[in-house]
Amino acid sequence: MTSNSTKKLHGDLPSASTKAALADRKELAAVAFERTRMPMVVTDARKPDLPIVLANKSFLELTGYAAEEVLGRNCRFLQGPATSPIAVAEIRAAIAEEREVGVEILNYKKNGEPFWNRLHLSPVHGDDGRILYFFGSQIDMTEYRRVEALEASEHRLLMEVDHRSKNVLAIVDSIVRLSNSDDPALYAAAIQHRVQALARAHNLLAERGWANISVEELVQLQVTPFAATRAALSGPDIRLPATVVQPVALVLHELAVNAARHGALAVPQGRLSISWMPGPSDAGFRLRWQEAGAGPAPRSTKRGFGTVIVGAMVEKQLKGRVEKTWSDDGLLIEIEVPSAGSTAR
């Protein structure tokens, strides 16, 4: 700072000070500027491109630059490929209008490491009202941003866990309510097998990081234990979200158990064909469950408990529909599930 500029510039008086400290305020201000942990710079507003004329130790430590690499340069050397042009425009407007501004901007250290900088820029005017300098202070917000992002991620995770837990519990509740309770031993076994089928789907989702699961993989998972070599599968690659996977898995389990006990898989000549396709406008999917060689429809018209569970899962939980058709040779079941996040590839 030249003696000429000093005559034109008088700093702000301290908000609180003793007489002794007030007398030494200039020296104390210089000490504070250098020793504070907050990075600070001063740029000369009377020179083209506002070069840096003062930078404290904290600023050099934050950015990784040496004093000779900073002095005489405009602060834009801290900008990089992901620096927001909107934030830059906000700073430029404040400089042009000689007013204070606070902006959070992505800057870069000498080694290329990005950091979030909460910049506060303030103009310094002379006694005649003309702009002399701009004072800039920085706060490294990188760690705060990281914690903030982590907290947001954890919140989303907890919400997702809560949603998934409610979904699973709703299915388990349906299993308990809809299973045949006439015989305690059979009731316990039926619930156990149905919960195991649900657990297989849950384990598959966990292994895949709760990503979408293909219809084919889900069919194989639930049908193979009952028909390893007697089921023909066909269909395009349709992916189901987690909320759809679990109820569909239980539906497939019920169909496979029914086929093994009363249908095509209960007789040596029986055959099972399972196919699927996208729903209307590629939304959701349709599943065709064809049993052949099982003979005509049973005489009893009473709905079995497996049929009740299938209807509850498809119609109530998935908002879809089920159609069952008997022929002289076997059973055809057609299931349609609306979108619910399913994707066809």
From TrEMBL:
Residues 25-74 form the PAS domain. Keywords: ATP-binding, Chromophore, Flavoprotein, FMN, Kinase, Nucleotide-binding, Phosphoprotein, Photoreceptor protein, Plasmid, Receptor, Sensory transduction, Transferase. Gene3D superfamilies: Histidine kinase-like ATPase, C-terminal domain, PAS domain. It holds the Pfam family HWE_HK. InterPro entries: HATPase_C_sf, PAC, PAS, PAS-assoc_C, PAS-like_dom_sf, Sig_transdc_His_kinase_HWE. It catalyses: ATP + protein L-histidine = ADP + protein N-phospho-L-histidine. SUPFAM superfamilies: PYP-like sensor domain (PAS domain). GO terms for molecular function: ATP binding; photoreceptor activity; protein histidine kinase activity. PROSITE patterns: PAC (PS50113), PAS (PS50112). Transmembrane segments: none annotated. Its EC number is 2.7.13.3. Residues 99-153 form the PAC domain. Signal peptide: none annotated. PANTHER family: PHOTOTROPIN-1-LIKE (PTHR47429:SF8), PROTEIN TWIN LOV 1 (PTHR47429). This is Blue-light-activated histidine kinase.
